[in-house]
Amino acid sequence: MNIILLGAPGSGKGTMAQKLTGELNIPQISTGDIFRKNLKEETPLGLQIKDILNSGGLVPDEITIEIVKNRLAEPDCAHGYILDGFPRSIVQAKALDGFQRVDCAINLDVDKQTIVSRLSGRRFCPDCNGTFHVSALGGSDTCPVCGGKLITRKDDSEETVLERFRVYETTTLPLIEYYKAQGKLINIDGTGGVEAVYRRILDVLRK
Ligand code: AMP
């Protein structure tokens, strides 16, 4: 099954994609993770996109589309995948339709106030790409999954969060209508605990 996860920054796409990947046994393809890896390893791409990522803007469509196209052509994607963070614009969605068949687009619906509270308390593990909320860490800055040192992502600062939200509303939000028109949209209430949201997704996918 070829699944797209849609939703604002902080709506829980990454968390849900990680859980679904285990359940469905198909890979999670996160463009954000791919870009952060390049940034960390200071590859030519990483150096090129550093300022964009740190300011909360979007990497140009041509670059992003090419990366996803190549990644989805790898053998582990042959039986399906979960796209987390792609597409993020109508141009990307149209390009994807040109080289892949999308089965469904799951939109995690979360109000702005919840998003801001989630992102401001978000901690990230650069070693295993796990994301946690401070309220669940008991004051620790150690990753509960792999023992790595947790950090606050640079793009989770208040100013950048607001910019990412603005970009989401202008460029990514129209994707909801795009997939609705194709009859592929699944809207999920993304508020509440991780397990509750995950159940809602599984319930719909199993129908
Ligand atoms: P994320 O982890 O999905 O929030 O992505 C982190 C950052 O990577 C975004 O704020 C963008 O700068 C960049 N990025 C991720 N996915 C895309 C995409 N599909 N198109 C353009 N930029 C992206």
Query: CATH top level?
Result: Alpha Beta
Bound molecules: adenosine monophosphate
- Poorly predicted runs of 5 or more residues: none
Question: Which band does the percent of strand residues land in?
Answer: 5-15%
Question: Which outline best applies?
Answer: globular
Number of helices: 9
The CATH topology comes to Rossmann fold
Note the main sheet. 5 strands, parallel
Query: What's the total count of β strands?
Result: 7
Strand order of the largest sheet: 2-3-1-4-7
CATH superfamily: P-loop containing nucleotide triphosphate hydrolases
User: Whole-number average pLDDT?
Assistant: 94
Radius of gyration computed on alpha carbons? 16 Å
Ends distance: 14 Å
Secondary-structure content class:
alpha/beta
N-to-C series of helices and strands: EHEHHHEHEHEEHHEH
Share in helix: 40-55%
CATH architecture heading:
3-Layer(aba) Sandwich
What is the domain total for the residues?
1
Oligomer: single chain
